[in-house]
Design brief:
The protein is of the alpha/beta class. The chain has helices spanning 21-39, 88-102, 112-117, 122-130, 132-143, 209-220, 237-248, 278-284, 287-295, 309-324, 329-338, 348-358, 361-368, 376-383, 403-410, 418-432, 436-448, 456-463, 465-473; strands spanning 8-14, 45-51, 108-111, 155-157, 168-173, 177-182, 195-199, 205-207, 224-225, 227-228, 258-259, 262-264, 267-268, 303-305. Strand 5 (168-173) and strand 6 form a beta hairpin. The radius of gyration is 29 Å and the shape is elongated.
């Protein structure tokens, strides 16, 4: 337990599949709040709950083996398809924890099974059954769905015969035993028809979600917990949690906040459907860029990630622009809490171009004057995949300057930056009447043998302006 008066910040996930960027919201936003409180001199306790008792409701794309026979069972009772953990639920909880650590987040992680086995929910289950009419009324009012007078589903028992948890319903309670029948059809799983009983002390049950959330907050002493905006809509589970705290527990609920969805090309990410794998994204985006992406707009807004090569490079460049000179206070804070590596000393696109031109990381590193390998795995992932846009696939093929290219070369001293040299080309285009697109395509043809390419200023900075001048006039 945390000491009295200490902030307890909580979050949780259901470990239903591979970690994706939407999952990161669940632990990153509370970690930012935790870090901010620490900057202010507080010492909050950050708790992260892994719900490995929830029902297994779908087999994510790409997960090996035949897991369909386990649909409807608790995640903790589904075998690990990779054979390295005690269960499917534990495997993907550890998967999430590994990404937490890569992103610099280190909460106190608790599998929910530990809380059940320790008996933390037991007295609350008894209280909910004893006050069943009040519980039923709160759920009906806050969920905007009238429950029948026969409703008793305070918990979801695990069927003794088939092991399902999703298909059971409670039929009675005698103070020690919970009676149930396994007869529900939930689409992905169908009950076996068995009638039985489980004792509270067996912990072969899971509390219904709308009761589980406030109960856990109460016995852990949670003072702040956020959730996705779907939980905070009218009729959402936060309305239930708030009412349970006030009307049944006689306490104020924790403070709360909400975040929007992360969309991948306009589509909501999903662990259970295997949409938006974080491991794939982190091949191409360093941790600070991912964190910046989540913080650069208000957290209540949806955040759409374009994961095309062009889209991810635009994101990296936006991060770099604000790393150098934040456009506003929001961007400054986004950069601050993304915790950029001090090794980020050159433009990422420039490194990509240098690698393409030199053919090796060591050559790119030498050309760009780097003294460490922090960005090496990301650069190599880009250049060795089909993710890199064609415009960045460059080969230096200088040819003798003529026409507007020669005019441009003659206007340069060789000491200009890429941006300054590009601006001089625009000025010459304006004074000579040569269309700007013709001017730029002529320069690209003289340097890389084709009509277009990466941003000219970046290409100049990587190759070196003096080298370009010498090679195009030699």
């Amino acid at each position: 337990m945390s000491r009295p008066g200490k902030h307890v910040i909580a979050s949780a996930i259901t470990t239903s599949g591979p970690t994706h960027l939407g999952t990161v919201e669940e632990f990153f936003f509370p970690s930012v709040i935790t870090n901010r409180l620490r900057e202010m001199g507080d010492d909050p306790d950050f708790i992260f709950i892994g719900d490995i008792m929830d029902a297994f409701d779908s087999v994510p794309s790409g997960v090996p083996g035949d897991l369909k026979p386990y649909l409807g069972k608790p995640l903790v009772d589904v075998p690990d398809p990779y054979g390295c953990h005690s269960s499917y639920g534990q495997h993907f909880l550890d998967d999430t924890v590994s990404f937490m650590h890569k992103l610099g987040v280190f909460p106190r992680v608790i599998p929910v099974t530990e809380l059940y086995q320790a008996g933390r929910y037991d007295s609350y289950v008894k209280m909910f059954f004893e006050r069943l009419p009040a519980v039923r009324e709160i759920l009906s009012v806050t969920s905007l769905k009238q429950l029948p007078d026969s409703w008793m589903d305070v918990v979801m028992p695990v069927c003794e015969k088939c092991g399902n948890i999703a298909t059971t319903r409670v039929t009675g309670f005698d103070g020690e035993y919970i009676y149930y029948v396994d007869d529900k059809d939930v689409g992905y799983a169908k009950g076996c028809g068995h009638s039985g009983k489980v004792s509270i002390s067996s912990h072969k049950w899971k509390m219904a979600w709308r009761l589980d959330w406030p109960t856990r907050q109460a016995f852990l002493g949670v003072t702040l917990e956020g959730a996705g905006k779907d939980h905070h809509t009218r009729g959402g589970s936060w309305d239930t949690a708030e009412a349970i705290h006030k009307q049944l527990f006689g306490r104020e609920p924790p403070l709360t906040y909400r975040w929007g969805f992360v969309l991948l090309n306009g589509r909501k990410m999903s662990k259970s459907q295997g949409v938006g794998s974080l491991s794939e994204l982190m091949k191409y985006l360093p941790p600070e860029v991912l964190k910046y992406f989540l913080l650069r707009v208000d957290i209540e807004k949806d955040k759409n990630l374009d994961d095309s090569g062009e889209g991810l490079i635009r994101l990296i460049e936006d991060f770099e622009d604000n790393l150098k000179k934040p456009r506003d206070e929001k961007k400054r804070l986004a950069i601050h809490f993304s915790n950029p590596s001090p090794s980020w000393k050159v433009r990422f696109v420039s490194l990509l171009l240098a690698y393409e031109i030199e053919g090796t990381w060591e050559g790119a590193k030498r050309r760009m004057g780097l003294d460490d390998d922090y960005l090496k795995p990301y650069v190599e992932a880009w250049v060795k995949s089909d993710k890199l846009p064609e415009e960045y696939r460059v080969v230096y093929r200088p040819k003798k300057a003529e026409g507007i290219v020669l005019q441009w070369i003659n206007s340069l001293t060789g000491k200009e930056s890429g941006a300054e040299a590009s601006q001089k080309l625009r000025d010459i285009s304006s004074t000579t009447g040569v269309p700007i697109d013709v001017a730029f395509s002529s320069v690209y043809e003289s340097i890389i043998g084709r009509k277009s390419g990466p941003r000219l200023s970046s290409l100049i900075d990587v190759l070196g302006l003096k080298r370009i001048i010498d090679d195009l006039t030699g």
